[in-house]
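Dear colleagues,

For the upcoming journal club I promised to circulate an example of a predicted protein-ligand complex. I picked one with zinc ion because it came up in last month's discussion. The inputs are reproduced below in full, followed by the predicted structure.
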Amino acid sequence: MKVLIWGARGSVPCFSKRKNHFGTNTPCVEVKFSKTERIILDAGTGLVSMGNSIFEKSNLSTEPFNIFLSHFHWDHIQGLPFFKPVFQKEVSINIYGKEEIDKVFSSQMITPFYPVPFGNLPAKINAVHVDSSISLFSAKITPFQLNHPQGCIGYRIEHNGKILVYATDTEPDEGKLDKILIDHSKGADLLIMDSNNTPEEAAFRKGWGHSTYIDCVNIANKADVKRLILFHHDPFHDDSVVFEKEAKAKRLFRNSFAAFEDMQIDV
Ligand SMILES: [Zn+2]
């Protein structure tokens, strides 16, 4: 699998005049299984960059896009209305996630919030409720529950003997949901996990549904993960905060890396 990070920030796209190594866009991760086979994890503003890149390279294929949503909070869906392929009538897009997909987008992309109603977009958009393992291309994709307000889905993706786990927007619960996350991360070659909060912030952000780098390292160790990607950076953390988070995580788990926009990882 080839993994490409299009957006690694959480909550809201950020812009800073200071140097910003980690990027500004909200979650979007592309996973390629071959030249033409790929899935997309989340539709944050990183999806807009991905769509632009496809058009710049005249790379629009007839294969449907397959987008797996973790949940419907703004930072995970905001790129969809500005994803250029939605305006192409020859394009098909399958959106996987919780069962209310149609209802959510139909009530989000509506006057006065957006000029084109969801149902009138030229692309053929198909909502798929995913509540158990599915096979797509030659991959097996298994959804599982995370701990986040209004719920969130993680995905375990198995392909050619390799395992990738995407677990954004989750907070430790020291119980059932931690066990679900550990079980689904078992033996993963790559774990991409929410690391939004510093330990100091976590103390007054209980119930916000996010983790720290220490939580990520705990899961990675317990699940025997090979590589850890710290993801969903707080939009107000500048480079120094994220680099410090990465350095501290490396001391506890050597194969820790902070996600940045345009990061490419072979799994
Ligand atoms: Zn988020």
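Two points we might discuss: The chain has one domain: 2-266. The chain has a mean pLDDT of 95.

See you all on Thursday,
B. R.
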